[in-house]
């Protein structure tokens, strides 16, 4: 939906309100100073009349601020400087007419009122107008720069979100290919009943994987359950499945967030490397979730690509707030990762 042609520029009211407030504040301060000086004289005007005179004196500047806030767009051009030069005599004429009216004198022609203004008055009026134009230009420049910064941040966030979706989407075919390969092996070996059970479990896991790969977050309990089901499926597809030792802190893991399928690439690599025990420890401390996986040594291009993708995903999600460490102890690989603890919305 496009805005109508006569719609006000976005944010016009803020610079005008600030300018109007500044001019009225100057009017009040000027009236206070003028009234204090005049109080020593035998006859002096009331403060209300003095304030009215200053408010009327700055009224053209408030109106000019409104015009600049509503209609002056973009960078300064020749029109800005022409308007500045035209406004100087207009402001001087207004001040001459106002001064004559307040003193009860005959106003005369505009040329007469201009001629009565001193060079100091001309210079002061030019300075006031220059400040007015400069303040509006500075505000527009800041707002344009601010919008550009926000647009750049949004573009960067969109790019990171797209890359994250691609990384998560890659898990679907990877998971499917790995599982189907195991089921195919069962069929080839004649274990049809076991293959049927594996297909049923694979169907359940695929529904979870499809749902998770299109979500930004899931609960840690869902991640743990998915891994348990995948390990069970892996055990059906391979007669000698890898035993898994779970070490979970005693808490309700449905209350904590986890990026979908975060640990699956690690467990898949560990389960397919060799039927060696896998240890998975998940805990909380210092405002972070800590996950430690110990398994048979992960080597080769597949493991390196998996760890690189996991590191990139953590960086996109948490920037420097997440950590991933990989170490080797003899024939074992130990992977430690941590990311900021956050509540999961049920």
Q: Which term fits the overall shape? A: rod-shaped
Strand content: 5-15%
Protein structure class: alpha+beta
Order the strands across the largest sheet as they lie in space.
2-4-5-7-6
Contiguous uncertain segments of 5+ residues:
1-9
Compute the average pLDDT: 77
Order of helices and strands: HHHHHHEHEEHEEHEE
**Helix percentage:** 55-70%
- Put simply, the count of helices is 9
Largest sheet: 5 strands, mixed
How many beta-strand elements? Answer: 7
- Terminal Cα separation, in Å? 35 Å
Radius of gyration: 37 Å
What would you say this structure looks like, in words?
- Helix 7 (220-237) runs parallel beside helix 8 (264-273).
- The protein has a five-stranded mixed sheet. The protein has a two-stranded antiparallel ribbon with strand order 1-3.
- The chain has nine helices and seven strands, in the order ααααααβαββαββαββ.
- The chain is rod-shaped and about 115 Å long.
- Helices cover 64% and strands 12% of the residues.
- The chain has helices at residues 13-38, 47-71, 78-103, 110-115, 119-188, 192-213, 220-237, 264-273, 300-318; strands at 218-219, 244-248, 257-258, 278-285, 288-296, 323-329, 332-340.
- It is an alpha+beta fold.
- A hairpin with a 2-residue loop joins strand 4 (278-285) and strand 5 (288-296).
- The two termini are 35 Å apart.
Which properties best describe this structure?
rod-shaped; 9 helices; 346 residues; alpha+beta; disordered N terminus; five-stranded mixed sheet; two-stranded antiparallel ribbon
